[in-house]
Amino acid sequence: MERILVSSCLVGRPVRYDGAAKPVGDDLFERWRAEGRLVPFCPEVSGGLAVPRPPAEIVGGDGHAVLDGTAQVRTDTGEDVTAQFLHGAHQALATARRTGARFALLKEGSPSCGSHRIYDGTFTGTSSPGDGVTTALLEREGIQVFSEDDLPALDTLLQTLDPKPEPTAAEAPERPETP
Ligand code: SF4
User: Fold this and answer.
1) Which of 81, 135, 140, 175 has its CA 20 to 30 A from that of 45?
2) Domain limits for position 120
3) Ligand 1: residues within 6 Å at CB?
4) What is the per-residue pLDDT across 79-135, written as a single tens digit (0 to 9) for each?
5) pTM of the entire predicted model
6) Do residues 89 and 137 touch, judged by C-beta distance below 8 A?
7) Domain contains 24
């Protein structure tokens, strides 16, 4: 069964910078949870940051630029938390490897977990296209990242990869008796 590394805040854990959660509340998500596919993980907490913590944004690029050393992650007071974000990203990758997760479902917009857009480093609520730091690392390492806006696409992929189990004797269609 394919497993999915998932942002802890999406499963309802209150680990965001403001001490809140962002539960998904979707039937597909609840099915994956019931199937035991979900591997919850918060890169920022695992990277050593507290809950609550100051908001942070990537300054000078996106997560790929952070991995390349040409951008930093800073709090709204200018503290450099790049090392914690990088540590959390590598912890996320290690968790995906350990659990065999080839897919990740990560919270959109986060400087760690965003996959289509992140905030632009000005702390003005302005988004720009780009990946968060954890997303960038996972994608570089071949783990496909989806956001909470992509649930149907991930479900289609999972149905392709996880063949339906053989029907049990009770479920098998009746065959005519041979004479
Ligand atoms: Fe959620 Fe990711 Fe932010 Fe942790 S780092 S609170 S998992 S969006």
Assistant:
1) 140
2) 4-161
3) 7-9, 15-16, 42-44, 107, 110, 112-113
4) 999 999 999 999 999 999 999 999 999 999 999 999 999 999 999 999 999 999 999
5) 0.91
6) yes
7) yes
